[in-house]
C-alpha cells in the first residue's frame, strides 16, 4: 500500500476546558483531495494550525513525508514541503505574476549573488518560474501585476508560489471563500487538476465544491471525526446527516 504523505494520529488540543481537537486521526494519500468538513467551531482551523505548526498539539503525532514533524516550527515544516495558502496572502501586488514566482524560485535556490544580470533577464529564474506558471494555467497572465489578476487567478498564483517553493502537499483553508459562483467553478476545476501535482487537505464550507472534488471526506464535530469516507458514504451516513449535512444533497 502507498504510504500516506500526511498522517495525523490521536491528536489532542485543549483550550482551557474546551477540547478543540479530541483524538483526531486522519491521513492524506498521494494524488488525493481529502476534505475536512464540519459545523462552525468544530475545530477545523485548529487542526490545520496544528498541522502547519502555528498551534502546538497537547499530544498525538503528525507525520509528513515519513517523518515526525510535530515538534518542528512553521518555517521548517514549510521547508519540507507542507504548503499552506489562502489565509495570509504571500503576493507582492505591484509585481507581475512572473516576478512573484521568480522570487519564490530564487528563495528556493537560496542564491542572493545576482550582481551580473537584472533578475528579469536571468533565465535560471525566468524559466522555472514560467514552467510553474504554466503548470497552474497562468502562463498567459505572466506579465500582469498580481493586483490586476482576478480573485481566482490570485489563488492560482499563490499555489504557483507554493509549488515553486517545493510544496509536496497543500493545506487549503476555505479557498472558495469570497468567490462568486463563476469563480468557484473555475477554482474547482483548477483544484481538480492540482491534486496530481500534490495532494490536498481541503477545509471548505462550499458543499458543491467539496462533493465535486473530494476523494474522501472527514466530518469533524466538536473536535472529533465522526465519519470518514467517500462522497457517497458521507451523504448516506445518518450521523453526518443529523449532525451537519441536513438538506445538503
Ligand atoms: N486560541 C484559542 N483560544 C481559545 N479557544 C479557541 C482558540 N482557537 C479556537 N478556539 C475554540 O476552539 C473551537 C474550534 O475552533 P475552530 O476555529 O478551530 O473551528 P472551525 O471548525 O475552524 O470553525 P469555522 O468553521 O467557524 O472556521 C471553537 O470553540 C473556538 O472558539
TrEMBL record:
Alphabetized Pfam families for the sequence: ABC_tran, BCA_ABC_TP_C
Source organism (scientific name): Oryzicola mucosus
PANTHER family cross-referenced by the UniProt entry: ABC TRANSPORTER ATP-BINDING PROTEIN (PTHR45772:SF2), CONSERVED COMPONENT OF ABC TRANSPORTER FOR NATURAL AMINO ACIDS-RELATED (PTHR45772)
Keyword Cell inner membrane: no
GO annotations of cellular component type: plasma membrane
Keyword Chaperone belongs to the record: no
MF terms (GO), sorted A to Z: ATP binding; ATP hydrolysis activity
Name the record gives this protein: ABC transporter ATP-binding protein
Amino acid at each position: 500500500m502507498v504510504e500516506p504523505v500526511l498522517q495525523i494520529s490521536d491528536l489532542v488540543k485543549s483550550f482551557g476546558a474546551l477540547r478543540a481537537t479530541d483524538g483526531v486521526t486522519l491521513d492524506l494519500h498521494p494524488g488525493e483531495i481529502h476534505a475536512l468538513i464540519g459545523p462552525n467551531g468544530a475545530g477545523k482551523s485548529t487542526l490545520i494550525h496544528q498541522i502547519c505548526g502555528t498551534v502546538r498539539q497537547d499530544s498525538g503525532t503528525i507525520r509528513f513525508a515519513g517523518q515526525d514533524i510535530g515538534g518542528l516550527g512553521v518555517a521548517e515544516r514549510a521547508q519540507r514541503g507542507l504548503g499552506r495558502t489562502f489565509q495570509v496572502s504571500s503576493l507582492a501586488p505591484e509585481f507581475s505574476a512572473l516576478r512573484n514566482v521568480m522570487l519564490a524560485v530564487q528563495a528556493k535556490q537560496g542564491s542572493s549573488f545576482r550582481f551580473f544580470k537584472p533578475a528579469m533577464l536571468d533565465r535560471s529564474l525566468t524559466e522555472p518560474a514560467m514552467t510553474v506558471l504554466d503548470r497552474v494555467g497562468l502562463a498567459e497572465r505572466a506579465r500582469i501585476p498580481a493586483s490586476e489578476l482576478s480573485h481566482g487567478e490570485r489563488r492560482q498564483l499563490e499555489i504557483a508560489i507554493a509549488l515553486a517553493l517545493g510544496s509536496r502537499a497543500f493545506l487549503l483553508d476555505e479557498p472558495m471563500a469570497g468567490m462568486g459562483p463563476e469563480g468557484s467553478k473555475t477554482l474547482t476545476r483548477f483544484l481538480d487538476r492540482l491534486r496530481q501535482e500534490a495532494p490536498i487537505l481541503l477545509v471548505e464550507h462550499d458543499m458543491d465544491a467539496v462533493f465535486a472534488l473530494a476523494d474522501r471526506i472527514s466530518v469533524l464535530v466538536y473536535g472529533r471525526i465522526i465519519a470518514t469516507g467517500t462522497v457517497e458514504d458521507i451523504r448516506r451516513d445518518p450521523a453526518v446527516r443529523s449532525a451537519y449535512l441536513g438538506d445538503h444533497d
